Amino acid sequence: MRQHWVVLWSLWAARLVRQPTVEVRVGGGLLRGAVSPDGSHAQYLAIPYATVRPHNRFKAADPEPAWDGLFEAINENVRCPQRIGTSFVLGHENCLVLNVYTPMDATPSSRLPVMVFIHGGGFYEGSGSRHLYGPKYIVSKGVILVTINYRLNIQGFACLGIKEAPGNAGMKDQVAALKWVQRNIKAFGGDMDNVTIFGESAGAASVSLHIVSPMSRGLFHKAILQSGTSLAPWAMQYRPVYMASLLTRVMGYGTEDPMELYSILKEKSDAELIVTRVPRKEGNVIVSECLYVPCVEEEIEGVEPFLSELPYESYRKGDYNKVPVMIGLSSAEGYLMASMENYTTIPKIKIETSLPKDLTFPTAEEKREVVSELEKLYLIDGSYSKDSLFEIARYEGDAFFSHSVLEETELAIRTNDQSVYSYLFAYGGNRNLAKFSSGPPYSYAPGATHADDLFYLFSQSFLPSLFENTMIDTMTTLWTNFAKFGDPTPVVTAQVPFKWYPTNSTSPEALVIGEKIEYGQLRYSDSLKYWQTVYSKYRRRS
Questions:
Q1: Are strands 420-425 and 325-330 parallel, antiparallel or unpaired?
Q2: What confidence score (pLDDT) does residue 356 get?
Q3: Host H or E run for residue 329
Q4: Pairwise CA distance, residues 352 & 375, whole Å
Q5: Widest CA span of the chain, in angstroms?
């Protein structure tokens, strides 16, 4: 009996002892990672893929660093500077690292499909941490998973139209990560010719931007967009120099000169830039606080732009990187957003004040007509109250997430010669953490909110499966099949007993992933149909 307990104790203790992987050579030098504690995969953490120094704080990063000896890729403690709470800042400037996760049997000759995940967070927070975006469920399907960090906030998206701060540094970080994957993923057993980029929220907007950016051409072969797109009103700066001046104005400066703004910003610490907040306009919604995001860059000699025209124009003309696409949203996107409001902001929210910034109206009368119709659709007569929480959620979800995802889907149907798979995630299960964290009255409402799908794709160190193995298996099978074959259901099996067909203009339907799997209309509500009419007349085109 004593020997039996010694063996059991030894097996348990072995999980606490790091088991190193074989050494891998990448561009920076030799590295090795560790076998995951449960033995399910190999993990290589916080590998530097590019370098930020003071001279390129607001522009494209320098190449990856080189090191002597053996780099131990075992500690994931790096994130880009961001605010935690109201005044605490976490992270540091040289934060451009990525994580690589592989099946245990992967070798340099395996040529496994590669999935590169881009995290969300409104372009001002988040990281590729395994604690939230854990690999266990995805890697078990025979793919390699890569998660990345990129610069956030004004450090990543100061867009001043000058060589020192041309714009889109955070997006150029992502391009650098994709180039690193092209150069190095074979050493981990990955196929550089079969790379799928996918992301959620701002990560999905990033994927959408890579689809239209010439800088990203050839760096990926399929794309998955979850609850976000570059057509979302929060995903693009339209007056970026003015937006930068708003931040410096709070600091006590009164200039809109790009060089003067740069001189101010470069002298400020990360903490000063991040803790300083531009006040939200009274009557606006929480999404309006996403200020420093991608932009259309000015033409600057010697600077390669990431984006030279509005994404809508690229999609409309069909001038973009045409790859197979999976794109979708959650059935109640707005629950999470509305839960971030409070009883101070709620009574002041007005549709007229909070209209998406990518709408322009030739006359005040036309604007008033649109506002009046929206007030009827969302059952309000000018302002919200604490009794209107579901109306707030429906408005914020439709206006800032659902419509733009459906609009990109419809544009892709018309102009992309590759397959377009549309979905609506409507499952309400035990792992809908985003909905539960939204609190009453949303916590136990039907459906799924923004980011709920993530918990059926990624494992978390703090969270068991909670008896949701069937939906986890369904979601990860669909996503990894798409990465492998460009088709989420190449064959109908007992595991996935249905066929998911691409959508098209003749039959514009989405696969509804809920308690049961069925098809539904893309524009599934009168309010979403009305947003289509509004944008067809009043979309900002410059």
A1: parallel
A2: 97
A3: strand 325-330
A4: 9
A5: 86
Enumerate the β-bridge partners of residue 329: 424
Residue 414, SS3? Answer: helix
Categorise residue 285: left if φ over 0, alpha if ψ from -120 to 50, beta otherwise. Answer: beta
Buried b (16+ CB within 10 A) or exposed e, 226-263: bbbbbbbbbbbbeebbebbbebbeeeeeeeeebeebbe
- Least Cα distance to 533 among 305, 392, 295, 370 occurs for 370
Angle at 367 between CA 361 and CA 370, to 5 degrees: 120
DSSP code, position 539: B
The per-residue DSSP string of 173-232 comes to HHHHHHHHHHHHGGGGTEEEEEEEEEEETHHHHHHHHHHH-GGGTTS-SEEEEES--TTS
* Strand ranges of the sheet holding 24-26, from the earlier edge strand across to the other edge: 24-26, 29-32, 70-72
- Give the C-alpha separation, 69 to 129, whole Å: 26
Checking if the pLDDT of 169 tops 90, the result is yes
Q: Identify whether the C-beta of residue 21 lies closer than 8 Å to the C-beta of residue 33.
A: yes
Arithmetic mean of pLDDT over the chain: 94
DSSP code string of 266-296? HHS-HHHHHH--PPPPTT--GGGG--S--BP
Residue 414 to residues 196, 225, 231, 417, Cα–Cα distance (Å)? 22, 17, 16, 8
Does the pTM exceed 0.90? yes
Q: Is 227's pLDDT higher than 90?
A: yes
Give the residue from 358, 56, 292, 314 showing the smallest Cα distance to 159: 292
The answer on pLDDT for 156 being more than 50 is: yes
What span, in angstroms and rounded, lies between the C-alpha atoms of 422 and 388?
Answer: 30
Q: Which of the four pLDDT bands, split at 50, 70 and 90, describes residue 385?
A: low
CA dist., res. 285 & res. 297, Å (int): 27
Half-sphere exposure of 315 (CA within 13 A, CB side): 21
